[in-house]
UniProtKB/TrEMBL annotation:
<dbReference type="GO" id="GO:0043161">
    <property type="term" value="P:proteasome-mediated ubiquitin-dependent protein catabolic process"/>
</dbReference>
<dbReference type="InterPro" id="IPR000210">
    <property type="entry name" value="BTB/POZ_dom"/>
</dbReference>
<dbReference type="InterPro" id="IPR011333">
    <property type="entry name" value="SKP1/BTB/POZ_sf"/>
</dbReference>
<dbReference type="GO" id="GO:0031463">
    <property type="term" value="C:Cul3-RING ubiquitin ligase complex"/>
</dbReference>
<dbReference type="GO" id="GO:0097602">
    <property type="term" value="F:cullin family protein binding"/>
</dbReference>
<dbReference type="InterPro" id="IPR003131">
    <property type="entry name" value="T1-type_BTB"/>
</dbReference>
<dbReference type="GO" id="GO:0051260">
    <property type="term" value="P:protein homooligomerization"/>
</dbReference>
<protein>
    <submittedName>
        <fullName>KCTD2 protein</fullName>
    </submittedName>
</protein>
<feature type="domain" description="BTB">
    <location>
        <begin position="12"/>
        <end position="115"/>
    </location>
</feature>
<dbReference type="Pfam" id="PF02214">
    <property type="entry name" value="BTB_2"/>
</dbReference>
<dbReference type="GO" id="GO:0005737">
    <property type="term" value="C:cytoplasm"/>
</dbReference>
Amino acid sequence: PARGSPPAAASKWVRLNVGGTYFVSTRQTLCREPKSFLCRLCCQDGPELGSDKDETGAYLIDRDPTYFGPILNYLRHGKLIINKELAEEGVLEEAEFYNIASLVRLVKERIRDNENRTSQGPVKHVYRVLQCQEEELTQMVSTMSDGWKFEQLISIGSSYNYGNEDQAEFLCVVSRELNNSTNGIVKEPSEKAKVRQLLRCIS
C-alpha cells in the first residue's frame, strides 16, 4: 500500500542532467517563467521539445553546468547572484538560451553598469598651490572646503619684514579628486584664507 505514494511525491521534483552535472528542483520553481525552455521541458512535458532522459530519468540538457547555478537560483528566489569567478556574459548567454526574459534584462543591466564604471578610468586629481604667510597657515588648513586634502608645505623664506619680525612665506599644495559630478568646476579651498593661486591645475 505504501508503494503508491512515492510516484506522487516524486512528480513534484525534477532531476536535470546539465552537461553531466545533476541538479534537482521542483516543477513549481522551473515553471516560474512560463515561456522559458525549462517550463516547456519539465512542466508541459509534451512532444514539442522531444527531450531525452538519461538512465536515471533526468532530463538531458547539453549546456555548461557552471552557469546553470545562477539561472536556477534566480528562478528560486528572484535575485541575480553571480560568483566573482563567473563571467556575467556567460550567465547572459545561458539566460538567453533558457529564454528567461526578466533575467536577461537584469544581467544586461549589470554588464552595462560595470562597463560604465570601468569607462570612467582612473581617478584624476586637481592640484592647487597656494602662497600664504606663516600666521595664515592654521586658518587656511582649518577652513579648507570639503574634498580638499593637504599635500605638502614648502617654505620660501621671508618676503618682507613687518616691524621687528620676519614674515615667513610658504607654498601650500592641496589636492582633490576630480570626478564627473563636479563637471570640472572646483571650489576654492578657502575664501577666508587670503591666498593667491600661483600655479595652474594639473590633472
